Amino acid sequence: MVQGNRWKMAANPLRTALALLFFALSGVLGTGKISCINEEGEAVDWFVFYKLPKKVGEDIGLQYMFLDSTMASWRKSRQLVSSKESILGRTLAQLYEAYASKRNDTAYLIYNDGIPESQNYNRKYGHTKGLLVWNRVQGFWLIHSVPGFSPVPEDGFIYPSSGRKNGQSGICITFKYSQFKAIDSQLLIYQPNIRSCSIPNTFHRELIHMPQLCAKSSSSKIHGRQLTKLQSAQGLNFLHFAKSSSYSDDIFAAWMAQHLKTHLLANTWQWKAYALPSNCSLPYHVYNIKKLKTPDQFYFPSSSDHSKWCVSTKNSRHQWVCIGDLNRSKYQVFRSGGFICTKNRYIYQSFYRLVVSYEPCD
């Protein structure tokens, strides 16, 4: 009996330790891996989408095509971009699930200078549109061009009417939590117009600026521009360019093309007299795209496209593709925003093949 009691007494601490370890691990393993989601409902490392311009008399302006990390070229969606089964709807479902569960282990930040159901822009903030959802394992960053697309949890997934007429584009990237500290610093440069946010205290030690931006109380010094390297959850490398309003120059010609050492074909919203012409004054040139076509031969002018992206010219030594926030505009030289760039060949080739013509330099 004495020997049995000794074994029982010795076993109890071991059993207790194992139980504590189990509960600790279950807390970590039970935290879902938030990520970009494709149309099949599968987690993917990244995706890009292209909402096509409205075809006169043919549709309601909600057709789109997409490319994700499991594919090599554009695929036209069977869904409308406004559907909860679309690539955006499936990805953002994670935001609404976390919100409904009232968990304090998930954070989100939604920003857009275009106010929903309004034609006015809040020029106090950066010309930036996007959202982030993450936990302490990983999350995603969606950068897009859609005015008024602020799908706050209280309202659920709504694609705005302001995003129908013109073409729109965006990129979603899955990042490990370790990358969010760098993203945090880039967003400070952006000074985005926060539409909705929730960042529990558990994130405040590593992430300084996003909680301040969320509370609209940031007093940190803002640099004129900042470049950082990012890496997706599966190891795809990116460069992210962020400029503040104090950096008053064309981000394409003055910074991106010269740093990437490549001539760029730029597709941005060219609005009336404010558009900047193609620029060949520096070693690496920037040309405005004038006409585009989809793989199924739908041609459209850049004047009907609100997307913001650029690609290296065909004969450039370095073949980059960048997707982001800013237009080549005299006015937006003074706005904050940025671009995320990669040399992924499938993203590059897919965007480059959209180009039909561009504007030469004078």
From TrEMBL:
The entry's keywords: Endonuclease, Glycoprotein, Hydrolase, Lysosome, Nuclease, Signal
Functional note: Hydrolyzes DNA under acidic conditions. Does not require divalent cations for activity. Participates in the degradation of nuclear DNA during lens cell differentiation.
Chief location of this protein within or outside the cell: other
Source organism per UniProt: Mesocricetus auratus (Golden hamster)
Source domain of life: Eukaryota
Segment forming the signal sequence: 1-30
Enzyme Commission number(s) of this protein: 3.1.22.1
Name of the protein in question: Deoxyribonuclease-2-beta
Subcellular location: Lysosome
Family: Belongs to the DNase II family.
Catalytic activity from the UniProt record: Endonucleolytic cleavage to nucleoside 3'-phosphates and 3'-phosphooligonucleotide end-products
One Pfam family linked to the record: DNase_II
Keyword Hydrolase included in the entry's annotation: yes
Keyword Phosphoprotein attributed: no
